[in-house]
């Protein structure tokens, strides 16, 4: 009997951690799929497929063609379309699925959050009076803030924001996490930031800015997650490996 075939939709720290556990496993043959949006992704220990599938139907066709036994959605908590496509494709093909989905951050005493449900709502939440804004939502949706040119922006992303924001004042920082609290505090103080815009992605790698904002009494416009597809989920790589061995017992 051959090894069980697994397709891991990745792009997160948790996906990397699970990939490391699956690499060379005698019972499982896993492929890690990346969207290809990061210019220079880190080396990974599994076979890697880069690029999209052509929507939900394309993913379903891949699952059939590659005879995938298990689909794991370990994409970013805000990769809503990919997660929806994964849920549909699994149902369409009868392939088993679960999500590796880290919990979101919870508001604690001292946090000054304004929770919104979209990037556009975050733009509106900044208001009309000029403010100094730390934009920490990645590069893909940063363009939305061009319609609020009265603010001065500090934009941090892994890859360059292309095209840059159509605003008079914008500084761009290229950096890859994790980011610690002390460093984030220095950034907020040095740039005289008034408000942080962040996505509630959860995890520890980018929580430093949230903790620093709390200490400094800064407002965080927090973009909350949409409702995730209704598939079984686990919170970390260890729990994911346990579920794999339950769903696909080694021969």
Order of helices and strands: EHEEHEHEEHEEEHEHEEH
Distance between the termini: 8 Å
Total DSSP E strands: 12
With strands numbered from the N-terminus, the spatial order across the biggest sheet is 3-2-1-4-5-12
Question: How many helices?
Answer: 7
Spans where pLDDT lies below 50 across 5 or more residues: none
Largest sheet: 6 strands, parallel
- The overall average pLDDT, rounded, is 93
Radius of gyration: 20 Å
Helix content: 25-40%
The rough form would be described as: elongated
Strand content bin: 15-25%
Structural class: alpha/beta
Describe this structure in words.
This protein is of the alpha/beta class and 251 residues long. It contains 7 helices and 12 strands. The chain has helices at 13-22, 55-65, 80-93, 119-125, 181-190, 208-216, 237-247; strands at 4-9, 28-34, 47-50, 70-73, 96-100, 112-116, 132-136, 152-157, 170-174, 195-199, 219-223, 233-234. The strands form 2 sheets. Strands 3-2-1-4-5-12 form a 6-stranded parallel β-sheet, sandwiched between helices. It has a 6-stranded parallel β-sheet with strand order 6-11-10-7-8-9. Strand 1, helix 1 and strand 2 form a beta-alpha-beta unit. The protein is elongated. The termini are close together. The mean pLDDT is 93.
């Amino acid at each position: 009997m051959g090894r069980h075939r697994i397709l891991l939709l990745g792009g997160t720290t948790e996906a990397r951690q699970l990939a490391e556990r699956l690499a060379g496993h005698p019972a499982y043959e896993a492929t890690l799929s990346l969207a290809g949006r990061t210019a220079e992704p880190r080396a990974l220990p599994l076979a890697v497929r880069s690029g999209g599938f052509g929507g939900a139907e394309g993913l379903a066709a891949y699952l059939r063609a590659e005879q995938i036994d298990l689909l794991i959605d370990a994409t970013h908590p805000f990769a809503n379309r990919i997660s929806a496509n994964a849920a549909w494709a699994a149902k369409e093909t009868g392939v088993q699925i679960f999500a590796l989905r880290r919990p979101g951050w919870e508001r604690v005493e001292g946090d000054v959050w304004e929770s919104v449900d979209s990037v556009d709502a975050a733009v509106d939440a900044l208001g009309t009076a000029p403010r100094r804004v730390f934009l920490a939502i990645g590069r893909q949706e940063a363009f939305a803030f061009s319609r609020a040119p009265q603010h001065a922006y500090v934009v941090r992303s892994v890859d360059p924001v292309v095209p840059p924001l159509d605003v008079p004042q914008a500084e761009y920082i290229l950096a890859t996490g994790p980011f610690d609290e002390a460093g984030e505090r220095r950034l907020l103080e040095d740039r005289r930031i008034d408000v942080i815009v962040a996505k509630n992605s959860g995890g520890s790698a980018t929580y430093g800015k949230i903790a620093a904002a709390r200490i400094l009494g800064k407002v965080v416009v927090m973009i909350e997650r949409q409702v995730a597809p209704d598939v079984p989920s686990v919170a970390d790589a260890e729990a994911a490996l346990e579920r794999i061995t339950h769903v696909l017992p080694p021969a």
